[in-house]
Amino acid sequence: MGANISLGRVLGIPLGVSYSWFLILGLVTFVLSRQYGDLYPAWSAAQQWTLGIVSSVLFFASVLVHELSHSVLAIRKGIPVKGITLFIFGGVSQISREAERPFSGFIISAVGPFSSLILCGLFAGLYFAFDRFGDHLGALFFTLAWINFSLAAFNLLPGFPLDGGRVLRSIIWAATNSYWRATLMATRAGQAMGFLMIAGGLAMLLFMEEFQGIWISAMGWFLTMAASASYRQFKVRQQLEGLSAAQIMNPSFGVVPSDASLESLASDILNNRHNLYLVVQGQESLGVITFRAMNRVPRDKWASTRVGEAMRPLHGYPVVSPVSTALSALEAIENRNSPMALVFDGQQCRGYITQEHALHTLKNRPSQPA
To answer: What pLDDT digit, counting tens, does each position of 312-361 carry?
Structure first.
């Protein structure tokens, strides 16, 4: 989705906008303005563009309501939400983990399209109420009713990771009692749906000269890529099932006193080649330091800078037990947006977990059956 611009919080949920969103905002404004011009040729260019801009803003406000419904319900079900991001293909709720039961997954997924249908009904009612007072309000409300209906219909397509695909997964999950089999079938449906959209969009463009086919193909490509990425994540999660944090951790790390200089630590790194050092004071663990953290300090100050001054405190990282599940350890990393999780057995550090090391550990492990 690219880099994000933070827009603060809505209902306590962080809201961001990808730079790619500005491209689609301009495109939607242009298309709607042209559409208003074709339907209402008596309107001036200023009227067409004004309605186009207002319609675009309210369209993305509708997308935000759609995503907020997912996020708010997920939070009420005890599932953390990292934020909502608007980007070129609409919006996405960054829900930290999947629901633990099929019914919870079903309602969290279904509430988004349901909210879009409610907005469709609301704008349709406003259209019938205000159409008699002039073309402008009638055209605006009719367009927004149709957009929200289309948003609900598209998201209900039975292909993961669309809402309809998640609903499909919940139904299969409940019927088979297998989360893995349900996820596999839903992601395969998402890939198939994406290929159909690509083919259909290209057919519209080539044989019907409908330029909207380009957008349908682009949406199909996005759905195919998203479904494929979800499938890869599914396979990794499936391999992690039943593993503990101790089985995917990196047990190789160094220990350095907090009062040691960065210069002496650099010498130790050259000799032992540890990627991470636990910073201690006596028997107490204080924090962690890496070579990257050292490089934030100018090299001419390494001799006079103590490790304790350059380290990152322990509370800056998620801490898990060796017997914690591998999945919960990786979820802790994602939820905290941290580069790693530390593995502690009581007061003793046993190792650390990064996503890269976990994937390396899994590379030669056979996947479990779905």
So the answer is: 999 889 999 999 999 889 888 887 878 899 999 988 999 999 988 888 88
- DSSP labels, 181-234: HHHHHHHHHHHHHHHHHHHHHHHHHHHS--THHHHHHHHHHHHHHHHHHHHHHH
- 57 and 127 share one domain: yes
- Domain co-membership, 295 together with 335: yes
The phi and psi torsions of 288 (rounded to 5 degrees) equal: -135, 145
User: Which CATH number covers residue 275?
Assistant: 3.10.580.10
Output the CA–CA distances (angstroms, integers) from residue 312 to 23, 255, 279, 302, in the order listed.
Answer: 38, 14, 9, 16
**pTM of full prediction above 0.85:** no
CB 248 within 8 A of CB 329: yes
Torsion angle (degrees, nearest 10) of CA 166, 162, 64, 135 = -130
**DSSP-based three-state secondary structure for 83:** strand
* Enzyme catalytic residues: 67
User: Does residue 351 fall inside a structural domain?
Assistant: yes
Range of the domain at 147: 1-156
Give the Cβ contact number of residue 136 at 10 Å.
16
Contacts of residues 27-30 at CB distance under 8 Å and 24 or more positions apart, as own/partner, are 28/55, 28/56, 28/59, 29/53, 29/55, 29/56
Do residues 11 and 66 share a domain?
A: yes
Say yes or no: 44 and 104 in one domain.
yes
